[in-house]
Amino acid sequence: MTDDDRPPVHALLQDGTTVCIRTPLPGDHESLHGLYEEMSPDNLRLRFFAASRRSAEMAADRACATPRPGYASLLAEAQGQVVGLAEYETGEDPDTAEISISVADGLHHRGVGTLLVEHLVSAARAAGIREFTADALSENHEVLRLFADLGLRTDRHFEGPEVRCTIALDEDETYLTAVDSRGRGADVASMEPLLRPDAVAVVGAGRRPESVGRALLHHLRAGGFTRRLFAVNPSVTSVLGVPSYPSIGALPAIPDLAVLAIPATALPDAAEECGKAGVRAPLVVTAGLDHDQARRLLDACRTYGMRLVGPNCLGVSNTDPELSLDATFAADHPRPGTAGVAVQSGGVGIALLDGLSRLGIGVSSFVSLGDKYDVSGNDMLQWWESDGITDLALLHLESFGNPRAFSRTARRVTRRMPVLTVDAGRTDAGRRAAASHTAAAATLTMTRQSLFTHAGVTATRSVGELLETAALLHAQPLPAGSRVAIVTNAGGAGVLAADACAEAGLVLPPLTPQLTDDLLAVLPDGASVANPVDVTAAVSEEQLRECVDQVVRHPCVDAVLVALVPTAVATATGDDLVRALTAGPARRARPVAVIRLEQALPIELLPAADGGTIPSYAEPDAAAGALAHAARRAAWLTRPAGTVPELSDVDTERARTVAAAFLTAHPDGGWLDPRTCAELLACYGIPQCDWAWAETEDDAVIAAERLRGPDGRVVLKAHWPGLLHKTEQHAIHLDLQGDAQVRAAFRDFETRFAGLLTGVVVQPLAPRGTELFAGVVQDEVFGPLVLFGMGGTATEVLADHAARLAPLTDHDVHDLMTSPRCAPLLFGAHGSGAADLEGLEQVLLRLSRMAGDLPQLAETDFNPVLATRSAVSVLDARVRLLPRRTHNPYLRRLR
What we know:
The protein is an alpha/beta fold. Helices cover 36% and strands 23% of the residues. The protein is built from 27 helices and 38 strands. α8 (267-277) runs parallel beside α9 (291-303), α15 packs across α19 and α22 crosses α23.
């Protein structure tokens, strides 16, 4: 990609303001020259080692010149003014480039230079540059600190008054963490005007009772917003007792937040007016924007550095009593609490606000993202991470702008608090994988689930399940594992609870003899102390309390479910039995949840004597499902992050050359022929079955003679561009013996596939083993996804696959190999002997590396991959390349 091809992007400075980062154009010469002309003599000297105006002119000439190999530059622009420039140029060594940075006077210490360097580092990596060098005066502390704080390995060499800095451009975890930290600070600062505004204006608040603008103004006023509130309506001077002004520009104070409830046709001009007036955040509830209106709205927000929520949204809320901001048109005000909520659907938002308020969990802040032009779930996660209030994050996201950045942020945040989501769109008909080949197993659902698994996000299937799980995570400690004990006063309820636990993947362990003896000593006659523990209908409040306490304390149990049914013969009433649990502490050593089949609401939080709560469910499935989610979260938190293993015998540069050569010959992309495919796999050391290419009958016979194994049998596979399923096309002949059978098979292909056939692949007949499938789908939004599972002709019928996002860590590979139902076959089930597990790990890791190195790799199918006790090899490989640009998902930029 050339500099001219690099599209402009917008990104946040440390104070939350927005700049545009783009390649300089010839028309920028005057602005760039002005950047230097306005510098003080001291800053010019630090930049050019002399206060030379001539050097400044030459720098502007260089940046605006015709693009040339080895040179790249990026400028930062704020509201049409150039505020910084960074550039690099290679010398004799194409792997090394010299970098220089200039920042406008008055904008130092706001992160302009650092942001430019981050983007220039990304561009340099894409160009194959591995190292930056820079010369600076030793008194130029600002630029030296910039290099030192980047997170990249930097060496300094002092030469008199000058310092020679050498910066390695390797992207490692240290650098990504430093970028994360800078991005988090900038992002939170940009959200302050939205969620902690000092003044709010509602544009479009009218007299009509059904007006959305009026409803928003009423909600703000009735919710007790503690700061300045205005209405904007040229027809009135007051709305609901709030002073009204004819325009944003006529307001007596500049509002941080402008709520726009006006027709779509008026939105772009209103946003422009907001920007010119100094508004920092527009909230757009209006729906139905056409393409031009949407573009102009977002352009105005980017030009003036405003963060946009919406359009087509319910609004925002912050329940901090010092603010009491409720800029929504929901029916009720949310109850203050500790759950952060971000949704795309207004209806889902209302349901979550109502549910959290009813449960008593309450809400810290709420943002209805709507069509999500700008502010996203990623922004909200970073806000909640920093607000000092939120301890539970709930998301409903129908789309992802930057899934890799979301995954990285969520992975960090969810170590501090539970992050829950509704996995919406599981049956979306527009699935990204084509239905014509095995990689169709990578549905959008699998991709999203892989993202959530990697990030540690708790993904539920409905709003109800989300609330049920949130209640448990809010009220109870995490279980140490998946072992559950059930205590019930009715055998049937215990059976239902046991079934629910088993179906949720929980385990009901047998209780130890000592525990059963202790329980029999306190329970009524006739009690059963297996698991479930049936305390009988005659149990008293004291007996039930003692039973539960003993079970909770026992080390063989990770969680306790108490299933209670009111009966006419009980010595204690239903309320008494509940009190047996709530009279003591709500949070015991292990989580406790209640099942009450007669309960009217699906989930309630029962208040306990110590001020805490215990979750109570109307359905055993809901209780078991919530516990299973909690157990998975606990397991994720204890699991190390994993590392991406180093691989030997990988030739990335050669692989990129192979891909580039193919796309030069096939500009629209396509499936690789067998020879090019084998060459690409060889670049990554992926083992392949011996094979030969034959275009004539005689060539096939010669190849077969060379490749025959001890049993003398070979396989012929027909090939032509676009052939995917050889078995369905009857384009494969197995178990061929002797020259005559090889010739007959070749002639059969020539006859049936006349006009299509370009050649055949000859292979020895493979030994017995387990047939597996490994593949990659490069999703344009999510990036590369690695799939693994059962292979052979039944792979699509059985759909026995697991998936993980690349790059794979050592833990990801283990998960891939153990998740499919066919996994026991690899580990020697039924005495068959384990497959070459290390070899299989290497195939998956190398496939992952190939997908990460080559963004042009659209999809890959290895089917079958033959796993035997001694080796793993790919018997059939298909690779499709498409012309695609390198995309850095971790580069700081707005949507």
